[in-house]
């Protein structure tokens, strides 16, 4: 999906009206929406009367596309060239919000269609194995926040675009085993899913903690910004950006992990009640 604008740098007087009409991003979002609803239309024609996609799923999918639009077309993008904190908001939208919304918006029949893609599906399933997906996403996420790479991303257009594409791609890999609609598609058991999500809280907290507690400005490209926005100093902006990773990302994954654990515990309790009921009835 071509969801990303092909530019970096500063715009004049960025603010709440600094929306970017980037053809690549608009085209990518529009084409993705078109293919999604076209597939639904054709599936309905081929399977009349079958309720295979809910209104909720369609809303979630559109919300995922809207998340990418906000990340790449709204003032979030140009302000991110001035403020580390806003660039971290953009990363959250691209990796933590947009991908899971799109996956939750896909009906099971769409997963079935994807599983019939032969070698493509085989490769995808290998890449979405939990350990590999965890390492790919968190390894890449941590790497792009190394000062030498992050400053390069801000400075070089092609690297900036490639980094965001890879961030989104590895995010889809990491969310797959959490949101796939069944074990046959790669979904983890709820108890394992909880541990998997809990593990995701660690890398962001480490990277965020290092950034927040740094004694000097580590992303020197921000010193070249023609102005400071909202009265934020470089140091304060860096601390806020680090805190977004340190606290928000950790809390986000921890909340999802708690939900997965609750579902596992509820299912286990329900099975135990049924077992006791059967044992009582057999006496």
* Count of helical stretches: 11
- Name the poorly predicted regions: 1-7
Number of strands: 0
Q: How do the SSEs run, as a string of H and E?
A: HHHHHHHHHHH
What's the mean pLDDT score?
89
Helix content: over 70%
Classification by helices and strands: mainly alpha
**Strand content of the residues, in percent?**
under 5%
Round the Cα radius of gyration to an integer and report it: 21 Å
Word description of this protein:
The protein has one domain. It is 72% helix and 0% strand. The longest helix is centred in the last third of the chain and has 48 residues. The N terminus is likely disordered.
Give a concise summary.
The protein has 283 residues and is mainly α.
Descriptive terms for the model:
disordered N terminus; 283 residues; 72% helix; single chain; 0% strand; mainly alpha
List the helices and strands and how they pair.
Blueprint: H1 23-46, H2 55-73, H3 76-79, H4 84-104, H5 108-115, H6 119-127, H7 130-143, H8 147-155, H9 157-179, H10 190-213, H11 234-281
